[in-house]
Amino acid sequence: TRQYMNEAFQSGAMTCLICIASVKRNQAVWSCCGCFCIFHLVCIQKWAKDSLFLVSSPLTDDDFGKKDYPWPCPKCRFEYKRSETPSRYYCYCGKVENPAVDPWLVPHSCGQICEREFKPSCGHKCLLLCHPGPCPPCPKMVTTSCHCKKAKPVPRRCSAKEWSCRLPCGRTLLCGQHACENPCHAGDCQPCPRVSKQRCICGRQTAERLCASPQWQCDQVCGKCLPCGNHTCEQVCHAGPCGDCPRSGKRSCPCGKTKFTLPCTEDVPTCGDSCDKVLECGIHKCSQRCHRGPCEICRQEVEKQCRCGKHTKRMPCHKPYLCETKCTKIRDCQKHQCRRKCCSGNCPPCDQVCGRTLGCRNHKCPSGCHRGSCNPCPETVDVKCNCGKTVIKVPCGRERTIKPPKCKQLCSRPPTCHHPTQEKHYCHFGRCPPCRQPCQKTLTCGHLCPVSCHDQALVKQAGSHQSAGPWEQPSEPAFIQTALPCPPCEVPIPVECLGQHEVSPLPCHSANPYSCKRFCGRLLDCQNHTCMKECHHVTKLNTNADGKKAGPECSQCEEECTKPRPAGCPHRCVLPCHPGDCPSCLQMVKIKCHCKLSVLYIECLKLTCADLKEKELLISCRNQCPKELPCGHRCKEICHSGSCPLNCSQKVKLRCLCKRLKKEVQCNKIQEGQVSLECDALCKEMKRKAHEIKEAEAKAALEEEKRRQQAELEAFENRLKGRRKNKRRKDEVEVEQSSWQKYKNLIMLPVFGVAVVMV
Question: Does domain 1-57+65-139 have CATH number 3.90.1150.10?
Answer without folding.
Answer: no
